[in-house]
Amino acid sequence: MDLGLKGKKALVCASSKGLGKGCAAALAAEGVDLVLNARGAEALEATAAELRAFGVSVTAVAADITTEEGQAKVLEAAGQVDILVTNAGGPPPGLWKDWGREDFIKALDANMLAPIALMTALLPGMCDRGWGRVVNITSQSVKAPIPQLGLSNSARTGLTGYVAGTSRQVAEFGVTINNLLPGIHATDRAASLDSGVVAKEGITMDEARARREATIPARRYGTAEEFGKACAFLCSVHSGFIVGQNLLLDGGGTNFTI
Question: Which residue(s) pair with 181 in the sheet?
Answer without folding.
Answer: 248
